[in-house]
Structures are given as C-alpha cells and as structure tokens.
Recover the amino acids of this structure.
C-alpha cells in the first residue's frame, strides 16, 4: 500500500530525513519510534503529502504522492501532531466539513459523521465549539476527522499524546482493531504502545532507520534477552553464582541484587536462540543443589533498553538500571 | 471540475460561517457603516453638493476606508491557519492548494460585498431626495467591489507570509497604501515635474486612476482587467508563498 524509497528532506543545511526506505502492506500496524527530532513527523508529513520530499519517491496505493497527490491523499486519513482543529467550529461542524472535503454528501456524510462521533466517544460534545474542549476531547475530535471516510491508510502522529490512561488504552485498542483491515502508521515515544499495538516497528534516529522488525525481534536485541532470572533463598551469593555459571548453555551468571537471605541472579545464555533449554538446565541445577527458589523465568528482553542502545551509541549498554523490574517470562 | 468547484464552495462556506460565528464580523461591519456614514454625510458634504450623485460624496472615500477594513477582514485567512496548524490538515485533504486559496478569497470577498451592500440606505436617501443615474450608482458599486477584491487578494498574500495576524494586517495596509499613493493626484502632481513618463508608469499600478472611472459611473473593461490582474497576481503570489512554506 505504501512504498517509501530513499526519502530525503533537507531544511537549509540540515538533513531532517536522510534516506529512509520501507514499505507497508494491508494488515500491518507500523510503529514509528525515535527520539525527539529524529525525523518522525517530517517523514509523516511527506507521506501524507503535506511537504514535498527533497529526494526520493512515495507511492501510496500505486499513486505517486508528488505527481498525482489527489488520488493518493484520498486513501489516507491523517492525524497531525498536536491534533489541530478549527477552533471556531463545533465538533459536528468540523467533522461535516472534513467529510465534505473527503467527497461525502447527503446521507453518506451524515452517516460518516455519526459513525466517527460514536467511534471516538464524542457524543457529549457534539455541538460544543472546539476551543472549549479539553485536550483529550480535542485530540479525539481530530482523530475522528482522520477516520471519517473510513480510509485504507491511517497515519497518526502521536495518537495518544495528551490522553489519560483510559483513553490511551481505548486508542490502542482502536488502532489494533482497525489495523486488521487497514494500513496504520503511527509514531510514538511510548514503548509499551509499540508492544501493545504494533505488528512492526521502525526506529528512526537522526533521519535514518536504525532498526526495523517486529517488537519481539527488536527485543531480542536486548542484552538480557534469553537470560534466565531467578530468586534463590538461603544461600550465599558467591556459591550461587559459581554453580550457575557452569550450567550447560550458560555464558555467565551475574548477581543482580542481594538482600538478607535472598539472591537475585541472572544467567546469560551462550546462544540466545536456545533460551528454553537454559531455563530447564538452571531449574535442574537449582533442584539438585537443594536450593529453594521463589521465581524463575526467561527474559524476553526490553524494548526501552534496545531503544536506548540504538539511539544513544555513546552510552552503549545501559543495562544496569532497573534490574529488579520483573518482566513477563516464558516459564 | 464540479469536484473542484464543490471543494471551493465547501471551504468558502466554512470561512464565511467562521466570520459570522464570531462577534468580530459584526463589529467590523458596524464600524465600516458608521465610518461610511460619517465620511459621506459630514466630510463628503452630501447635502451641500446638491447633486443626486454618489461619486464624490460616497465612492470617493472607499479606497481609504477599505485600506483598513479589508486587511482587518482578510488578515486571519492564512495566518490563523498557520498558527493553529490546521493548514497541515487542510492541505493533506484531497484538494489542491488552489481550491483552498480561491475558496478563502471568495468567502472574504463575499463578506466584504455583504458589508458594501449594507450601505443601501445611502442609495435610498439619494433616490428619495432626487433622481440619481441608476447606471452610475451600479458602476460605482461594481468598482467598489472590485477595489475591495484587489485589496483582499493582497491581504490573502500577506496573510500567508506570517502566522501573526497583526503583522499580516500591517503588511497589507502598507502595500495597499502604496497602491493608493502611487496614483493619488497630490502625489502624482508632485512627481510629474520630476519625470512625466515614470509618473505615468508608476501611476498605472495604482488603484486610484482605475477606480476613478467607476466612481464617475463609467465601466471600462481596461479598469476591470486591471483589478482582475491585481487579484490574479496576488493570489498567485499567495500560492507561491504556500508552496515555499511547504517545501521548507
């Protein structure tokens, strides 16, 4: 549906986007990640046809965005950053206006507006002027505008920005549900969102794609991915460490934390692909040694750590913080 | 084609309803009408002239009143769109920038024409007192509408230059003031001693000589063409500014 080839955008001497290429097909929810100023919004503005690229090609549903923008734009629903809306209009007026520009008339328009209002929970504010709305409502009004013509492609720039946790949850659900039949690209810097809603994620840093894969694949890049974490009772830290480091398939063992009588240990695999085996081996060793343990699981890896390592090459690692945070495991 | 007309109409309707949903429009209209009355009846010495004509008591003031009225009406057109970020929304819709430019222009023009039409009591007064030449009155109104359109197109252009309405207002007043001055008789009389040919050239860019015909009741196609060219050129500049904004 969307094909982006070697996209470049320069502002003066600054290269905001520097050679981005990717493609998205129907049924995919693509997450755009990256630090502030990485070029996410600029890329989205080019894909939606707001600004022309300096170099490169964008094809949307087979139409070139620069040469043939009208049919390409018809396929897209767009929620710009900060969710702008005409403040002098009512919610209903604004949505009708958007529907008309999308070519909807008469009954079709009425139905589309009613559907968008229902979908985005705007019933209470339908006849309220946009400038009297709270940020959350305003955001949803602009979101409603983007889905008013039931587009094949949805491009959402920070769709959950400024929403409360319940609304965030609703929007994520909505994205996931709609993503089954559409193409959705959304940008965010909330990493749980990527895990919750995306089928694929692209990390952009300084105008370039630095990672492209499913959330699970990206997490695999984490240092702790595949490591087995366990909590052992009543044994000295050193003996635990020594014993576990020699388990088959383990490369090393590290003490994460130690308090009176309780030891948190992490055993790293020599081969990340075979993580299930390591957990079994560790469990056997622990039982054979007669230790009591309260918890044992395989780490999936953490997106925030991967994100930090990729986008901050100077401070590689960063895996020492938050070690005691328990993530969901396989076993 | 009908699609693009529809888009223009949709955008124009939105702008127009935007005017009337805020008190600013009514305030502007009232001020315009009050000033119009004051200039016509007090400064224009409407009753003393003793002539059933609007040329010198009424239409004569239009270039000067529009100088402030028109930029005030048009200054928000693109500046507000830029400030609020809705321009991004508008230009990612399946419309061409031209449809937006023309739609916005037409909406404001229509608003100005409504304001102008509300000066009808002047016409009623003069018809009651005497027997005016209907054609001349019509020509005056037509010229006045085109004059407003020309100023408005300039304002559309200056409005696209900035996200600040006040700056857009001032820029527009300055440009329109120039369009008046370069053909205003006191100025041309002064310049003509310096270089007659240059004066003629400069004056031909002014709205004053082209409005003078309408004011007297003459509809000259060359004058119409002049106003249409100013509108066309200014809106073209408006389009260029918007294209450059997007290109970064």
């Amino acid at each position: 549906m969307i094909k982006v080839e070697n996209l470049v955008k320069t502002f003066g001497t600054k290269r905001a986007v520097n050679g981005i290429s990717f493609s998205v097909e129907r049924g995919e929810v693509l997450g755009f990640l990256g630090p502030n100023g990485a070029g996410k919004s600029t890329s989205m503005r080019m894909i939606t046809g707001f600004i022309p690229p300096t170099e490169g090609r964008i094809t949307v549903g087979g139409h070139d965005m620069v040469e043939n923008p009208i049919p390409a734009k018809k396929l897209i629903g767009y929620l710009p950053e900060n969710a702008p809306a005409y403040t002098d209009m009512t919610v209903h007026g604004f949505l009708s206006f958007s529907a008309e520009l999308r070519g909807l008339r008469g009954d079709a328009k009425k139905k589309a507006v009613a559907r968008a209002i229902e979908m985005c929970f705007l019933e209470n504010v339908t006849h309220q002027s946009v400038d009297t709305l709270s940020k959350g409502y305003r955001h949803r009004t602009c979101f409603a505008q983007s889905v008013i013509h039931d587009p094949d492609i949805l491009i959402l720039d920070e769709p959950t920005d400024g929403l409360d946790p319940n609304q965030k949850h609703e929007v994520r659900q909505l994205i996931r549900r709609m993503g089954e039949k559409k193409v959705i690209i959304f940008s965010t810097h909330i990493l749980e969102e990527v895990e919750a809603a995306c089928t694929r994620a692209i990390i952009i840093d300084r105008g370039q794609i630095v990672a492209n894969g499913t959330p699970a694949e990206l997490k695999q890049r984490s240092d702790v991915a595949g490591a087995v974490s366990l909590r052992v009772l009543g044994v000295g830290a050193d003996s635990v460490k020594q014993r576990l480091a020699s388990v088959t398939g383990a490369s090393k063992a590290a003490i994460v934390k130690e308090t009176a009588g309780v030891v948190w240990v992490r055993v790293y695999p020599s081969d990340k692909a075979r993580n299930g085996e390591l957990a079994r081996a560790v469990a056997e060793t622990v039982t054979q040694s007669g230790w009591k343990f309260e918890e044992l699981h395989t780490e999936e890896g953490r997106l925030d750590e991967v994100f930090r390592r990729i986008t901050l090459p100077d401070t590689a690692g960063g895996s020492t913080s938050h070690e005691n945070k328990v993530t969901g495991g396989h076993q | 084609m009908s699609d693009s007309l529809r888009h223009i109409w949709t955008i124009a309707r939105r702008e127009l309803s935007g005017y009337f949903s805020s008190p600013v429009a009514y305030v502007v209209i009232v001020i315009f009408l009050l000033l119009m009355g004051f200039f016509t009846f007090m400064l224009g010495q409407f009753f003393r002239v003793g002539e059933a004509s609007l040329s010198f008591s009424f239409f004569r003031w239009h270039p000067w009143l529009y100088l402030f009225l028109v930029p005030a009406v048009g200054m928000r057109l693109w500046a507000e769109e830029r400030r609020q970020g809705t321009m991004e929304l508008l230009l990612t819709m399946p419309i061409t920038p031209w449809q937006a430019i023309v739609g916005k222009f037409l909406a404001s023009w229509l608003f100005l024409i409504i304001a102008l039409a509300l000066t009808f009591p002047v016409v009623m007064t003069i018809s009651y007192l005497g027997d005016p030449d209907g054609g001349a009155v019509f020509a005056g109104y037509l010229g006045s509408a085109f004059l407003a359109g020309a100023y408005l197109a300039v304002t559309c252009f200056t409005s696209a230059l900035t996200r600040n309405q006040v700056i857009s207002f001032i820029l527009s007043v300055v440009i329109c003031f120039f369009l008046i001055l370069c053909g205003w008789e006191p100025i041309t009389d002064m310049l003509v001693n310096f270089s007659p040919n240059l004066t003629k050239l400069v004056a031909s860019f002014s709205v004053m000589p082209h409005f003078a015909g309408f004011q007297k009741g003459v509809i000259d196609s060359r004058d119409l063409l002049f106003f249409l060219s100013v509108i066309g050129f200014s809106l073209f500049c408006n389009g260029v500014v918007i294209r450059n904004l997007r290109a970064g």
Remarks:
- The radius of gyration of chain B is 19 Å.
